[in-house]
Known about the structure:
The complex is a heterodimer. Chain A has two domains: about 1-45 and about 275-370, 3-Layer(aba) Sandwich (Rossmann fold), CATH 3.40.50; about 50-180, no CATH class. Helices cover about 30% and strands about 25% of the residues of chain A. Chain A contains ten helices and 18 strands. Chain A has helices at about 35-45, 50-60, 120, 130-135, 195-205, 210-215, 260-275, 295-310, 320-335, 360-365; strands at about 5-10, 15-20, 25-30, 65-70, 75-80, 95-100, 105-110, 140-145, 155-160, 165, 180-185, 220-230, 245-250, 255, 280-285, 315, 340-345, 355. In chain A, helix 5 (about 195-205) crosses helix 7 and helix 8 packs across helix 9 (about 320-335). Chain B is globular. Classes of the chains: A alpha+beta, B alpha/beta.
Amino acid sequence: xxxxxxxxxxxxxxxxxxxxxxxxxxxxxxxxxxxxxxxxxxxxxxxxxxxxxxxxxxxxxxxxxxxxxxxxxxxxxxxxxxxxxxxxxxxxxxxxxxxxxxxxxxxxxxxxxxxxxxxxxxxxxxxxxxxxxxxxxxxxxxxxxxxxxxxxxxxxxxxxxxxxxxxxxxxxxxxxxxxxxxxxxxxxxxxxxxxxxxxxxxxxxxxxxxxxxxxxxxxxxxxxxxxxxxxxxxxxxxxxxxxxxxxxxxxxxxxxxxxxxxxxxxxxxxxxxxxxxxxxxxxxxxxxxxxxxxxxxxxxxxxxxxxxxxxxxxxxxxxxxxxxxxxxxxxxxxxxxxxxxxxxxxxxxxxxxxxxxxxxxxxxxxxxxxxx
Amino acid sequence: xxxxxxxxxxxxxxxxxxxxxxxxxxxxxxxxxxxxxxxxxxxxxxxxxxxxxxxxxxxxxxxxxxxxxxxxxxxxxxxxxxxxxxxxxxxxxxxxxxxxxxxxxxxxxxxxxxxxxxxxxxxxxxxxxxxxxxxxxxxxxxxxx
Lengths: 372, 145
C-alpha cells in the first residue's frame, strides 16, 4: 500500500503529488485534469516500469502505432505521449515515485552510445522511414528503485528514432521484482482474458457464492454465475456460446451477461478483481459507470470491505455526483469506514491534490460543497 | 417592472456561507440591491451555526480552486476569539490571515489552493454583536430613511 505518489514530467504533469492515500481512493476533478494519468502512473509503478504497462496504457488511449513489421509479429507503440509535452527527444525524462513498497521508477531517453552493450545495437528495431535510418538511434533507459531491491544497473530498451518501442521487444524485457498484482478496469468493463482467468481462480478458491452475494445488490434474484467455454449451440435465442452467463431464481436457462445492464458487468468486474488482487492494486476509470444512484452506497460497501479483507489498494476516478453522494451515504451509516477512504480533487493549476478524508466527505455532502 | 429574483445556482460556483435562515434572507436581499449579474450572484448556503461554518471553511476552500468562497458570521460576545477560531482554519489551508481582522473585513487568497476567500464578522468586524446590530446600524445610518 502506498500513501503518497509523486509524478515528474509524466503525461500532463510537470510536478504533481498526492498525499494521504487511503485503502480506497476516489479521484475527482474537471475534464483533462489528469485523473486517468494518475491511475496509469500507479499501473506503471506497480509494474516496475515494464514497457508492457506503457503499451497497455497507449492501447487504451489509442496511441499505438499500428505499423507491423514484416512478418506481422511486432507492433510499435510510441512512448513519447508518456513524457510531458509528448516529447521523447534525447534528455527527456519522467519519474513516478511512492513512499511504500512500490519505490520509484525513472525513465530517460538518450542516444545509443558506444558504452552500451553490443547486443543492444543488434536489438534495434528496423527503421521503417528511410530518413530516420540515418539518424542516431535512441534508447529508453529505465531506472528502478524498489525498497529492498539490489538493482543498480538501469535496463535499456531500444527505440526507433521517432520514439517507438516494439512489442514483443527486440531486447529481453526486465522482470518486475517483486511481482505485484494489478488491474486497470476501463469504463466499459470489458471481460478480457485476464478477467476470465481471474474468475477461474475465484472458482478454484470456491469464492463464487461471495461474488453472487455481492451482485445481488443490483439483482436480488441472481442465483449463479458461470463462465462458459465455447461449444454451446449457436443461434438459439438466449443461448450462451461462451463468456459469463447468469442464472436466476425461478428457473429458465442461463442468459449471457451482455443481455443485462452495464451495471451487472461493472459489479462483476469489481467483485472479481477485488478478490483476485490480494496485496495488489485495482485501478478503475469511472467507477460508477452503469450503476444507478440507489446502489452506489452498496457498491462502495463492496469495494471498501472487500479491499480491506484482500489487502487490495483501490484508486478510482469519477465525474459522478451520485458516486460521491453514495460514498457519503455509506460513511453516514458506517463511520467506522471513514479512515479507509479518501477523495482527491485534482486541478492542473496546483501541484498537489486536495485531499478529503471521511469526515470531510460527509461535511461536503451535508453542505452541498462541490468536490468534483 | 418587477425585479427577477437572483438566479441562485447559475453562478460560477462562488459561494457565500451564512449561519442561519435569517442571515440568508438578509444577505440575499442586501445583495440583490447591488443588482449583480446573475452569474456574479453567489450561491448562498446555510451552515446551521458556528460549528458548521468552521467545518465548511476548510473543506470549501480546499475544494474551491479558481472560485471565491466567503463567510458571514456573528462576532457575538467575543469577536476576537471568533476571529482566532476562523484564523486558525484559514492558516491551515494556506490563507494568510492576520492576527486581527481588518475593520473592513478580510479578503485574500489561499496560496496553495488558489481559492479567493472573504470573511466578515457581524456587525462590523470589531464590536461584539450579530447581524441584527449590523441592520440596526444601517437604519441608524439612514440607509432606509
